[in-house]
Amino acid sequence: MKALFNDGHVAELSEDEELQVLRHSASHILAMAVKRLYPEADFGYGPATDNGFYYDIDLPEGVKISEDDFPAIEAEMRKICKENLKFETYELPRAEAIAHMQERGEKYKVEHIDDLPQDARITFYKQGEYVDMCVGPHIMYTKALKAFKLTGVSGAYWKGDKDNKMLTRINGIAFRTKEELAQYEELLAEAEKRDHRKIGREMDLFMMSEAGPGFPFWLPNGMRVRNALMQYWQEMQDAYGYEQVQTPIILSRTLWETSGHWDHYKDNMYTTVIDDEQYAIKPMNCPGACLVYKNRPRSYRDLPLKLAEAGLDHRHELKGALHGLFRVREFTQDDAHLFIMPDQITEQVMDTAHLITTYYAQFGFPYRIELSTRPEDSMGSDEDWERAEQGLRDALDSMGAEYIVNEGDGAFYGPKIDFHLQDCLGRTWQCGTIQLDFQLPERFELEYTASDGSKQRPIMIHRAGFGSFERFIGMLIEQYAGKFPTWLSPLQVKVLPVSEKTREYANEVASQLRAAGVRVKVDNRDEKIGYKIREARSIDRVPYMLILGEKEVEAGNISVRDRSNETHQTSMEEFIAAIKEEISERS
Asked: Could you tell me which of 239, 236, 273, 268 has the C-alpha nearest to residue 253?
């Protein structure tokens, strides 16, 4: 596909660039359609996004656009595409550009020009009667936009500033072909079915309450999942040589000042006053780990010291940003802090990366790795940063890992390696991280006695694998659509007596399973067996159903139905042996 650039030249686009240009052009076509239907409308910004496009629009007094208006707007957009209008571009000096936009009544564009640097090029794109100030590039003709759909409408402050006027944001998606659009719509439908908030309600996993927005309540079934994941986490800490600690939730403001978090993070911290002294509820666990390290003298023989903590943290998020378990104000961080000597960097980063990637293999998540370097808002010397960044590069190179460099996106205290997971819906999540830190050991004056008797500073590694348990469980709910593997499932077996005559046998079977450590319930309700099976499959999403009728009672065996809906008869001994092996191996 060819595109028109703002200097007038035309060039072929790569496949990666095509969608961005199509979606940006779709926003202009959307604005043109709205202008035809609502001639008094004014226009703010209209960019492409990772998933589509939007335009922020100032509608005339008393006029509102809802999703009921989308068919008319989409019809006008299709008409514009059919007209096959040519995109044209031109550039104007600043004063002429301002006059041009004033003449067209584009007050937001005039304000935008005022925000641009004095030496900025000011370019425009035109299709038909519609003109937009834009850097481009754009498609050559409107007919190149073949597949689009408007997806939502919301409010958005001009320039994202709550002190400015609220505009109407219309969102849409665009693809190269109608087939790609249809595939995306299927993906959206699948995402809706897998929504962890919906499944969480159906399976009684967790709840939210206005009594504490962003503070999850774990329900009994959710606690089963959480505890099973926590047990796996604890076993993995033992396997990789970590000691487990727990640090206080509330600590003095002076601690956060020492760590630097107060200067960099206080707007996201909850505070309280105790004995006339200001305290903060911890947003992260690392200062507490430093105090644990400093609790007694350390020798080079103690290093690496690897302290794992499933720490309960609190961070303030805007209420509008909260989203199920994915964005919360209270969460349990899968955290660890390693205190090491300089010559242990490569070995320990590699070991930590192997632990994290083992997690992801367990749950079938593909991932990509990013190395993030020094941000503008950072602490420490150039030498420390160069040393830290090189240490991470050496570890990744020694592993033969593929990674990309994300310039300037490190933490304020050190560079980091991030692991971005891809889920079954193609979305990416940043969960795992390995952060090298020379700053906190300096701030907390941490020391160890070297082999020559001298006092040296340890290097600190911050590590997370799941990220937060809350978000990771939300991801797992959607990854499995609630059909957790048996070891993780809140209910592993549901026993379904066919009639009242077989209830006693059903309870005996359940007792044997419970004694074997299997999570089991008996459905003793006076319901038809077909209803019980459908509920166990669609609501409980249970791995195994045991359907017990009179012939099973007489034979002293069980009928087992698994998630393939196939049923076979077996003995209790064989079933218990098989399910215990499946659970213990986490297969």
From this structure: 273
Cβ partners under 8 Å of residue 252, min gap 6? 277, 278, 279, 280
Question: In angstroms, rounded to a whole number, what is the distance separating the alpha carbons of residues 391 and 382?
Answer: 14
Q: Identify the H or E element spanning 69.
A: none
d(CA 373, CA 250): 31
d(CA 211, CA 156): 27
CA distance 559 to 23: 55
Phi, psi angle pair for 356, to nearest 5°: -65, -45
Give pLDDT, residue 381: 81
Of 332, 283, 585, 284, the residue nearest 472 (C-alpha):
332
Burial of 401 (0-12, 13-18, 19+ CB in 10 A): middle
Tokens of 335: 């955290």
Contact 478, 529 (CB under 8 A): no
Comparing C-alpha atoms, which of 44, 27, 36 is closest to residue 76?
36
Collapsing DSSP to helix, strand or coil, 541 comes out as coil
- Crossing angle of helices 94-103 and 107-115, rounded to 10°: 160
For residue 449, count other CB atoms closer than 10 A to its CB. Answer: 15
SS3 464: strand
Instruction: Tell me how far apart the alpha carbons of residues 326 and 191 are, in angstroms, rounded to a whole number.
Output: 14
**What pLDDT band is residue 323 in, cutting at 50, 70 and 90?**
very high
Query: By three-state DSSP, how is residue 173 classified?
Result: strand
As a whole number of Å, the CA-based R_g of the chain is 29
**Token pair 């960019």: residue:** 47
Task: Judge whether 130 and 103 are in contact, CB under 8 Å.
Answer: no
Residues carrying an active site annotation: 286, 315, 333, 335, 337, 416, 462
Parallel, antiparallel or unpaired: strands 138-139 and 166-175: unpaired
- Give 354: exposed, middle or buried? Use CB within 10 Å, 0-12, 13-18, 19+: exposed
Residue 7: closest CA among 100, 94, 104, 136: 136
Q: Are 247 and 288 spatial neighbours (Cβ–Cβ below 8 Å)?
A: yes
State yes or no: pLDDT of 413 exceeds 80: no
Count of residues making up the chain: 587
Q: How confident is the model at residue 29 (pLDDT cuts 50, 70, 90)?
A: very high
369 has which bridge partners? 419
CA dihedral 249, 250, 251, 252 (to 10 degrees): 170
> Between these two residues, 191 and 75, which has the higher pLDDT value?
75
Confidence tier at 55 by pLDDT (50, 70, 90): very high
d(CA 80, CA 399): 54
pLDDT in tens, 348-385: 999 999 999 999 999 999 999 999 999 988 877 888 88
Residue 463: pLDDT band by 50, 70, 90 thresholds? very high
pTM for the full predicted model: 0.82
Closest by CA to 462, choosing from 274, 249, 314, 286, is 286
